[in-house]
Structure formats: C-alpha cells, structure tokens
Amino acid sequence: MEPVAAAEPGPAVLEVKGLVTEFPTRHGPFRAVDDVSFELRAGQTLCVVGESGSGKSVTARSILQIVDTPGRITAGEVLLHRHRTSRGSGEEETIDLARLEPRGQAIRAIRGRDIAMIFQEPMSSLSPVHTIGNQIGEVIRLHESVSKKEARARSIELLRQVEIPTPESAVDRYTFEFSGGMRQRAMIAMSLACNPSVLIADEPTTALDVTTQAEILDLIKRLQVDHGMAVMLITHDMGVVAETADAIVVMRHGKLVERGSVEEIFYAPQHDYTKMLLQAVLDLDRPSERRLARRAVQAIGGPVVEIKGLVKEFDLRHGFMRRKGHVLKALDDIDLTLNEGENLGVVGESGSGKTTLGRCLLRVHDPSRGEMLYRAVGGGVADVATARGNGLERIRRDIRMIFQDPFASLNPRMNVAQIIGEPLLVNGVAKGAALRARVAELLDVVGLPASAMERYPHAFSGGQRQRIGIARAIALEPRVIVADEATSALDVSLRTQVLDLLLELQERLGLSFIFISHDISVIRYFCDRVAVMYRGKVVEVGETEEVCTNPQHGYTKALLSAVPHPDPRHRGMLGRHRYEAGR
Amino acid sequence: MASVLDPRLHTDTEVASQWRLMWWSFRRHTLAMVGLVIVLLLYLIGIFAEFVAPFDPQSASAKHVYHPPQMIHFIDSTEEGWRIKPWVQAYTFERDKFTLQTTFKPDEGKRVYLSFLGKGTPYELLGLFPAERRLLVPDEPNERFFLFGADRLGRDMLSRTVFGTRVSMSIGLVGVTLSLLLGVLLGGISGYYGGAVDMVIQRVVEFVLSLPTIPIWLALTASLPATWPPLTRYFAITLILSLVGWTELARVVRGRFLALRSEDFVVAARLDGCSEKRVIFRHMLPSLMSHVIASVTLAIPVMILAETSLSFLGLGLLPPTISWGVLLKEAQNIRSIAQAPWLFVPGAFVLVAVLALNFLGDGLRDAADPYAQERG
Predict the structure, then answer these.
(1) HSE-up (13 A, CA, CB side) for residue B129
(2) Nearest by CB: A408 against B264, B272, B283
(3) Measuring CA to CA, how many Å separate B259 from each of A549, B22, B288?
(4) Does residue B10 register a pLDDT over 80?
(5) Helices (H), A36-131
(6) Alpha helix (H) ranges present in A174-267?
(7) What residue in B sits closest to A25 (Cα-Cα)?
(8) B17 and A412 in contact by Cβ < 8 A?
C-alpha cells in the first residue's frame, strides 16, 4: 500500500475563525458551536467528525447562515477569500459571511454559487413535483443569466458528469423515479451547477447503502480533483474519514477538540476523545474476545430455529380496481438454521429482505410459504409459520425482538416501569409489588438505576433507551432474540457497549441471537456465523471470519470491498469489486 | 451576563409530561390564549345564566317594546358631589297621536340606579338551588333597564342572549360528544384493521360527506313533530347535527391510527402479547388524545353555526327555547334592521364564540403536534 498522497495544499479559500453559534433556551443561551476555527483549502477535503450532538451540522449551516431559528451566530468570522478562487477578479476580495444579513441579497448570491451544500437526506432535499432538469436549471438561472435552452444543456452535461446513465432522458424525470444513490448524484449535480469553489457535504452518504456510499464518495473525490474545489465533509463514520480526508477536525459538545492532517489524527492522536473514537472503531473491526473466550468454554448446541423454504410475497395491488400480477418477493426461498447459544448475523443492503425475515420470524408479517420450526425446551417442535392463538403467544414469549430505533420503539406516553413491565403484566407473570421488583432487577441487569422506573423514555439518551428496549426483550426470559439493526442508531462509542451487554446477557440467560445489520464491522464483532442476503435470497452463509476474509459469492465480495476501512493507508475504494448481477 | 449552559452536561434531566409540554407550547400562542379565556367566559355565562341575566328572559312588557339599549354609567355625579354607583339613563315612552309610532326619549332628570349582587326576581340556579341574588339588578324592584335593548315583546335582550348562550354553547358540546363517540369508534376500527373494513367505512364516510348538508338537515328537522317538548327537540337536533359531524373526526382518527399502527412501539406491544383491545386503548389512544381534543375543539364551532342556521330558518329549536339562532330569527325582517338593530347582538356572540373556538382549536392543534417547528 502506498502512503497517503499528500494533496498539495492550495490557498485557504474559506476561513472560519472563533465561530460561536447560540440557541436561546429557558436556561439561557446554549452554545451549539463554541469557538471553532478551521480553514478550507482549494483541492483539499476537510472532514469534520464527531458524534451526534457535537455541533458539526450547525457549524456547516452557520457558514451559509441557514441555522434553524432561533439559533444565530454571536461571535466569530467566516471569511470567504473570493480572490483566491476561480471566480476572483484578481483584486483582493474577502467577504465575512457571518456579518451578512441571513435573508439578504448578498448571502443569497453566495449560496449555491460560491459555496454549495449537499444534505443527508436526498429524498427530502429534492422537490417531488419538479423534474430533475428543472431543479438544476433553476439553480443555474438564479445565478447566471442564461436562456432556458442553455440551462437545460448545462443540466444534461452536469448529469453526465455525475455518471447518471442516459442524462438526456434522465433530465426530464422526477425525483421519485430515481433510487437513493441516483438522487444523491442529482443533488451533487445541482450543487455543482455554478462551479462552486467550496462544497459542503453534510453526511452525504449516511442514508445510503455501503456500495452506493463508495460510489458517491468516489464521485465527490473525482469532481473535487476536476474542479479544484475545497470540500468540507461532515460525517460520524471514521471509515469515511480515512477514505477521503486530507485534513480532519474532531468536534465534541460544540467544541473543536483536535485538528490536524489525516496522518496526525489517525496515527498520532493527541486528545483522549479522538483516541477513544478511533479505539471504538478499531474494536469493532475484529471478533469480540469475550465471545471467542465463551465459545471455547461452551460449545454451540443443536438447532433452535430452522427456517426452510421461507417465501414472503407482498401484494402490491391495492385500491378499488385491483390489477393482477404485481407481487414483490421480499423473501425468496430462505433456508437458515439458528443453533442454540449462537449469534447468527444477517447482512445485506436496504431492500434485501433482512428486516422482513426478522419480522416473519415473529409473525409481524405472515409468511406466504415455507416453514419455521422452533424447538422448545422440552423438545417439542412448533411451526412458527402456522402457529396461532395460544401457540403463537407461547412462541412469542420465547422469541423476542429488539428494534432498530430506540426512539420509536418505546411508547412516549408510558414510563419505563410500565414499558418493561408490560410483557410481564399481559402474560400474567407478575403484578403489583412483584412486578416492580422484577422491573428493578431487569433495569439492574441492563445497567440502569432503579430510579429510572418513574421516568419517561424521552428523558433518556439513545444508548439508555436501547437498554430499556433490551430489558423489555429479556423480561420474559426468552431463548431467541431477533435484533433488527439494534446498534445502527447509536454512536460508535456506544455500539460496543451495547454489543457487550448483549454478549453478557447471552452468557447469563443462554440466549441465541439473530442479528440483522447492514454494518459488516458490527457483525464481525458480534456474530459466529453470517448469512449474506441480496434481493430476498441468501447468497452466502458461513463462519463470520471465513466469509469476511474469504468471500465466495460475487455480491459478498462487492459488499466487503465497499466498506470504508478506518485506516488511511488502506484506501481501496477505487480498486473495489463491483457486483452487477441482474441490474 | 447570562451564563452559558450546555444541556448535554445536565445529568439530572428535567422531566415534563406530555400535557405539560403541550401547555408550554400552547401558552406561547397569544391568540389561542385569548380564545381560551373567551370560551371559558362564555361557558361560565352559560352555566350561571340565571345569575348573570338581570331578568327572566320570558317576561314581556308592553311598555318596553323595542326599548333602545342604555349605556351603563359607573360614576354618579349630582349637585352634592359624586359617588361610585352604577346607573342608566331612564327613557320615557311617547306615542305619536297621529301615526301611533312609539318613540323613546331620554328622561334627563331620571336615573335608574343599579347594584351588583342585589336581590332580584327569585330563580332556581341550574334548576336546583333556589336563589335571588343576581349579578346586576335595579335598586327599585319595579324598574327595568335594558343594556342590550328590548325585543318586540319588551323582553330584555341581555337576559335572552345570556340564556341563548347556555343552549347554543351546550348544543355544540353535546353534539360533538356524540360525534366523538361515533368518530373515534368507526375511525379507530377503520384505521386499526384496514383492508375491507376500512374500505367499507371510508365509503360510508364519503357517502355521508357527499350528502348536501343543509337540505338533509332541513328534511330531518322538518320531520320532527312540532308537539315535542323543548328538551326532546333539543336532543333530537343535536343528534341530527352530530350525524354529519362525526365524519371529519372519523377521518382524523383513522389517519392517526394508520400512522401509529406501523410504529415500532405498537408492534412491540403486540409482540409483548397484548390483546387487540389493550393495544388500542392502552398503547394507541393515549398518543392521539391530544389530536382528538384539538379536532373536537374545531368541530364545536361547526355545530354552533349549524344550530344557528337551522334555528334561524325556523326549523331547529323553536320558541320558547332560547338559542342564538332563535333570537336571530327575530331579526329576519326589514323592520328590525331599520328600527331595532340591537336585535343583532346574538349574531355578534355567534361570531365571537366561533372565532374564539377556532383560535383555541388552532392553538391546541399546533401545541399537540410535537413536530411543529417554531417559526421565527
């Protein structure tokens, strides 16, 4: 591997000095951005990295003066050195964006023209009722006096630059006809419309699958080289940082904790927080030692759940006039076995059917065909696919679920004691004082104080809420837990904690896990075996390490090579494997 | 210098219940607060109508036909000095000898003195407790005063409007309660089960909505026997009004149920082993209570307006029942517009009540929506 090619540092195009952005609250002003300084250089990528709530998005929004009300910039300078960009007229011209009126003409002329921004959610940042060409054309015509025809020609050219196939026809399509990755490409095309000298990308790939993410990051890098732009990339993913950054700014609680070149940050981090962030990422990228130690003591048992020929079809016909023949095959002939005391990972991209698989196993959805045999403790075998009434209730006590979103999965109108006690109460396991004692015990198991009982879910952080969800799942002493993206809504540093908690519970309660995730590093840490899903089919099953180091199927290879490696010396996305079957 | 606080460093998070949060955001909505105060006042007036009204709304007086409104004064200045004492200028009644037209002239020398919380005609508060104290009564029991003027039988318009408030405001409430029961039940079933049930209920809702409301109301009310006692008629009218009113509520509830049904916490409740009844009543309904309350507040003015229109057309409530609509019926002819414009006072009450309820409902709806962004 060659060392990171140091991009020759161009002149500083944008300088942020001592920026402070405050939001008034009932307790006085809250500093979302607290004395942050950095500079963007032409042809360089600056990655702003930090966990949720670190103020990185507010920083980006402050530069363009689009902070949500009532927040406002209270101190600092944002200097745009226009004379150092291609747009400069040769004379010295420096504009302090922080001094401009947020709704004024001056800042509007800069937005989109000198500085462009890409947002996280490509779905909501594009208009659904205008064609792509229309929206790109509008940006061009807002800033430059060109005819409609010319604007259209430029739009097509831009779409070609961002590698959208057949741009001549794509220009007349609507947003909803594009996939997530295509939308983000269109968004990038739009931001490039006026040849900006600075591009701010706020989590541009977080909503996308890994393979799409790799393509988009690739594209941004290539365009940056072509146009000589300064790029500010905001992300929480150290892998993305390692893959793209020239310089890095680490933020925490609104403050800048460390800044430096990519090598300085990755190989010689100074601040404890930076070290912790990097360690959390590195911990995840290998098998959990705790799990390996446990497996050496207690071997994995026989099958608990056997899925045979499982098919789930969603009927897409709806409405008054039912038309025939429109069926989505979300699960296509799935065969999987979960053994006792085992962690089985299910990995795949969005739309691969992995969530449907988990939900069928709990009969949230009824499967169309096939069987799911569950072996109870006494040795009796029940088919989950056809169970009903009492039989289904008994199975649902043994197979429980942990949800992805710790915010949506807890009823906001119930307090913690009620939420965790609900399964115990409705199944008649405990009530009254015994129920409270059991809830306190469960809270203790997941590492929360008993005082949490009277509080409502919104008083807890994401990680704590996920613990409440886990306590609810283990309340009925289940044997199997389906964890659907249980850690993906959490910050990296919390992921290992939650995964370790699950491993601890496995030892104490003898659980088996089906762990659904799109994140291969989490799977590698937690799972003994992994099943790779692609378009409703299981394309590969095997021991996790075996699959990760020596993938057999083409799709698995593509998936693994697209994962950004948290090490700048292993930048490999350009040489990654692509899988194009059946596209 | 305000200290800079970082909420992330707070270890003891403050806990506020959903209702408290709603109240906080509601309080910032000035217009809605004004609406709330007015609505509360109107309901208080309605409940204590006998106490607020100076006279019996039915007592006629030939001497005071179309008596004009009198201005109330609070400072009584005579030659001896001045004192604080409410009074109104007395009017004398004159009849033109040739045209027989009656006119009222202010009688400069004569004042009708009033007192707060004095003894007036005995009454039974809410038909239960005998009492005789009223909010404002003339000092001399035989004298009369007309702050809102008098109608064609010389009855006090103030007392009549106050009693009309009771009927009109309560018909909105009772009608909406009925609509609410129907709406939440049918909307809930429709949204929770979906599929064919939803399809049937939604078509019924559309059918009801497509009925031309006014002719249907007219037909239904016209079929009520005129011989029914006032109370029976009152409930029959509320029933007819709510038959149409439930559809909107059913749609709101259905929409919320559809959205909630696929929420993770509802799925979690089902997986916990909750029965359908428990999922609906324990887990789903509390989450949409605030929305339902807001929609209910917005449905009341519709009811009030409907009652007013029906009674105005002479098909809703009938005298001797007093409602704003019944009172406005008196103001239907050209004579009242020319001679006694004060007969429109109940119309002003309708306007104020409907506006106040709409502001209140809007404020509640905004406050109930946790995703509502504050606009700067």
Answers:
(1) 7
(2) B264
(3) 43, 21, 11
(4) no
(5) 56-63, 105-110
(6) 180-192, 210-227, 238-244, 262-267
(7) B5
(8) no
Both tokens of A474, joined, read 């283990």
Label residue B4 by pLDDT band (50, 70, 90): very low
What residues of chain B lie within 8 A of the CB of A409, using their CB?
264-265, 267-268
Confidence of residue B51 (pLDDT cuts 50, 70, 90): confident
Give CA separation, A300 vs A119, A379, A384, A524, in Å.
45, 17, 22, 17
Q: Which two tokens stand for residue A494?
A: 């919390």
Contacts of A27 in chain B (CB under 8 A): 5, 7
Instruction: Catalogue the long-range contacts made by A202-206 (C-beta closer than 8 Å, 24 or more residues apart).
Output: A202/A57, A202/A60, A202/A117, A202/A118, A202/A119, A202/A120, A202/A234, A203/A57, A203/A120, A203/A234, A203/A235, A203/A236, A204/A118, A204/A119, A204/A120, A204/A233, A205/A235, A205/A240, A206/A120, A206/A235, A206/A236, A206/A237
Sort out which chain B residues have CB atoms less than 8 A from A426's CB and list them: 272-275, 278
What single DSSP character describes residue A91?
A: S
CATH number 3.40.50.300 given to A12-284: yes
Q: Which residue has the higher pLDDT, B143 or A123?
A: B143
- Reduced to 3 states (helix: H, G, I; strand: E, B; else coil), residue A74 is strand
Q: Is the dihedral of CA A216, A222, A228, A232 positive or negative?
A: positive
Cα dihedral A528, A533, A537, A541 in deg (nearest 10): -30
Q: Do residues A162 and A204 make contact, with C-beta atoms less than 8 angstroms apart?
A: no
Q: With contacts defined as CB-CB under 8 Å, which chain A residues touch B375?
A: 69
- Give the SS3 label for residue A300: coil
The whole-number pLDDT of residue A90 equals: 66
Q: Tokens in use for A261? A: 């070149």
CB pairs under 8 A between A and B: 87
| CA A142 to each of CA A139, A175, A194, A267: distance values in angstroms, whole numbers, following the listed order | 5, 21, 10, 45
pLDDT of res. A250: 92
For residue A327, the surrounding DSSP H or E stretch is: strand A327-339
pLDDT of residue A92 exceeding 70, the answer is: yes
Helix then strand count (H, E) for chain A reads 20, 20
The answer to whether A53 contacts chain B (CB < 8 Å) is yes
**Coil, strand or helix at A406:** coil
DSSP string, A445-513: HTT--GGGGGS-GGGS-HHHHHHHHHHHHHTT--SEEEEESTTTTS-HHHHHHHHHHHHHHHHHHT-EE
Q: Which fold has domain A289-565?
A: Rossmann fold (3.40.50)
Beta bridge partners, B259, equal none
Equal fold, A12-284 vs A289-565:
yes
Contacts of A413 in chain B (CB under 8 A): 18, 286-287
Kindly determine whether residue A393 and residue B269, on different chains, have CB atoms separated by under 8 Å. no
Residue bearing the bigger pLDDT, A482 or A180: A482
Residue B241 has pLDDT above 90, yes or no: no
Phi-psi region of A343 (alpha: psi -120 to 50; beta: other; left: phi over 0): beta
C-alpha distances out from residue A70 to A32, B6, B21, B374, Å: 12, 16, 19, 8
The 10 Å Cβ neighbour count of residue B205 is 20
Look at residues B339, B344, B303 and name the one whose alpha carbon lies nearest to residue B327: B344
Asked if A228 and A10 touch (Cβ cutoff 8 Å), the reply is: yes
Closest CA to B335 of B63, B96, B101: B101
Task: Please state the length of chain B.
Answer: 376
Mean pLDDT of A395-406: 88
What percent of chain A stands above pLDDT 70?
94
The answer to whether the CB atoms of A411 and B3 lie below 8 A apart is no
Q: Shortest CB distance from A427 goes to which of B268, B273, B287?
A: B273
- In this prediction, residue B284 carries a pLDDT of 85
User: Taking the domains of chain A in order of start, what are their residue ranges?
Assistant: 12-284, 289-565
Average pLDDT over residues B229-241: 80
